[in-house]
Amino acid sequence: MRREYQINSDTLLWDDFKKGNEDAFRLIYNSYVRSLFRFGCNFTQDEALVKDCIHDVFIDLSKYRFGLGTTNNIKLYLYKSLKRKIIRSLSKGAIFGTLDMEKLPFHYSISVEDELIDNEFEQQRYQQLDKAMLTLSPRQKEAIYLKFVSDLSYEELSKVMKLNYQSARNLVFKGLEKLRESYPKSLFLFFMPLRCLISGTNPEGQKNIQKYLNIFKKSRVQNR
Amino acid sequence: MRQTNENNKIEFIHNPDFVEWVLRPSLESDHYWKIYVTDHPSTKKDIEHGRFLIKGLVRQQKSLTEAEVSVLWDKIEQTENYRKRRFNNLKKWSVAASILIILGVSGWLATQKNTSTIKEINYQSIAVVPTSGNDIKLILSDKSEKTFTTKEVDLKYNQKGQLETKAGKQIQTEDLSKSSEIEQMNQLVVPRGKRSSIELTDGSKLWLNSGSRAIYPVAFNKKIREIYIEGEGYLEVAHDALRPFYVVTDQVKVKVLGTKFDISAYKDDDHVSVVLVEGSVQTTTGTESLVMVPNQKLNYKISTQKSTLEKANVLEYISWKDGWMLCNKEQIKSITTKLSRYYDKKISYTDQRLNSMTLTGKLDLKSNCEDVLKVICATAPLNYEIIDNTIFLKMKE
């Protein structure tokens, strides 16, 4: 008897895990711990607190595994659970008991330091984007983060943020529009051929980048 | 003009296809957007602006190091074990009355377990028959051999303990259950130029490429499923959470829950590769363990004992099982190595210029070797010549 499974979905892993399979538990941990940590670090600079919350999320997961619902979306479950834990931990330290959800910070800065960026030109673009990021509200940032970095659907991100579907879409849309407006277009006065844009890592592409960088520098001097 | 530019830009960063291309470019989407820019040159700037914006958004912040990941896991495991022990202790006192029964049962279980404990199997000692020779051979546990003269053989072990063999148009069924104790090992040897498939009792299916060998039990035991492969095999493992599936080669061990993947571990190659098509597997090389996700290729270089993970187009690695070979900028050298294994023909060349050539496209392997070479020679400026059973490739002058 041959059984056919659609292995790409989480359902199977989730089922195994609920049956008590330790490998499945470990696989879930390994697949999500890094992205959960990055997500959590947006709410607080306290990395130890985030780690403790992740610890609790997985302990809860294991503890209640036999009673868990039929949800088959592991990722959504983990994100929701982690956010809840972090908010709870943060409000323990808050002076007035509970945190104002609207004002809950979301840092989300664009990393500029990177060994891979070896030219000034590209670095400047990322710096500008990081600046543009400051114009967004924490919730806009969180929505964009969940959509693009965590790769959640609108449906899923609305659940993590406890919003309805349309508000979630609006947050992402308005956030992106704000970014687009404050992200200087002047940086794109000179554009590279698409060929080198796609294959920026090949030697020819690198040469092209250098060439356009030089033109860009010259033009800046002239503009002054 | 300016107006259209503005409109386009709004569309780009909100366009899911555009975002998909920026975040996960593929050959097709690269192609699509290349053509799009050629057709709409005025959007070039907007595309780059949007592309950089989206790319910038997903720039990875620092994350946990591997050490931190495992420290955190250890803590979770500790807490969990402590919790379980406490839970068990509680149970022990409150259900004291049923202890006798449990003891009885567990005593029985323990005796059962002994018969099926996992023992390290010495595959080297079983794998005595060379993969050279001309015919596909099936070697049963009592060392009796079955020889097949056809190009391809399909074996199926059904749950009644019967073996169905299909060689060409001939189909045979044989009962193995009477003669054997459970867990006896069978071995299938596929020489160069031949191919085979085996369906195992648990429903998993294995395709063996030319010059390969598989050693597997007629029926798996209750705790694990394990098979040994030398050469290249493609596997579709039936899901069974309670019995993990292990594929053992001389260098790499792959642990599977239920998935599709290709493994290549030829003795004359300096590398072992695993290409994951679906699901998830854990590979172990030496002491290093890695968890793979679909469309990834693990390459383990035996001489340096280093493994690398890279993105892979899976079709290139598994198309052999359906009788064709997909090449994507594949080097002539690698193509001739594969063809030579597949057809059991020596193929060589001396012209160094061939080393810088690559081929892209689909080669039909169902026809004979010469037909395939004709296709290659029609694509690239090459000629071939057969001298003493060896095929020589040359540049067309």
Describe, in plain words, how this protein is organized in 3D.
The complex is a heterodimer of chains A (224) and B (397). With 224 residues, chain A is an all-alpha fold. Chain A has a domain at 11-98: Rna Polymerase Sigma Factor, Chain: A (Orthogonal Bundle), CATH 1.10.1740. In chain A, 63% of the residues lie in helices and 0% in strands. Chain A has 10 helices and no strands. Chain A is elongated. In chain A, 27% of the residues are buried. In chain B, α1 (2-14) runs parallel beside α4. Chain B is flat, with a radius of gyration of 27 Å. Chain B has 4 domains: 2-57, no CATH class; 65-93; 123-315, Jelly Rolls; 323-395, Phage tail protein beta-alpha-beta fold (3-Layer(bab) Sandwich), CATH 3.55.50.30. Chain B has 10 helices and 23 strands. Helix content of chain B is 31%, strand content 34%. In chain B, the strands form 3 sheets. Chain B has an 18-stranded mixed beta sheet that branches. Chain B has 397 residues and is α+β, with helices and mostly antiparallel strands. Chain B has helices at residues 2-14, 16-23, 27-39, 44-57, 66-94, 99-115, 123-126, 315-318, 332-343, 369-379; strands at residues 136-139, 145-148, 152-157, 162-167, 170-175, 185-190, 195-199, 205-208, 212-217, 225-236, 245-248, 252-256, 260-265, 271-278, 281-285, 288-292, 296-301, 306-311, 324-331, 346-349, 358-364, 382-387, 390-395. The chains are: A mainly alpha (224), B alpha+beta (397). The interface between A and B is large, with 56 and 58 residues.
Strand content of chain A: under 5%
Which stretches of chain B are low in confidence, meaning pLDDT under 50 for 5 or more residues running?
A: 1-9, 94-118
Most extensive interface between two protein chains, with residue counts? A-B, 56 and 58 residues
Report how far apart the termini of chain B are: 52 Å
Number of domains of chain B: 4
Using the 3D structure, state the CATH architecture of the largest domain in chain B: Sandwich
The arrangement of helices and strands of chain A along the chain is: HHHHHHHHHH
Say what the CATH topology of the largest domain in chain B is.
Jelly Rolls
The whole-number mean of residue pLDDT values of chain A reads: 77
C-alpha end-to-end distance of chain A = 77 Å
Largest sheet of chain B: 18 strands, mixed
Could you tell me the radius of gyration of chain A in angstroms? 22 Å
Helix content of chain A: 55-70%
Number of strands of chain A: 0
Average of pLDDT of chain B: 79
CATH architecture annotation name of the domain at 11-98 in chain A: Orthogonal Bundle
What is the helix tally of chain B? 10
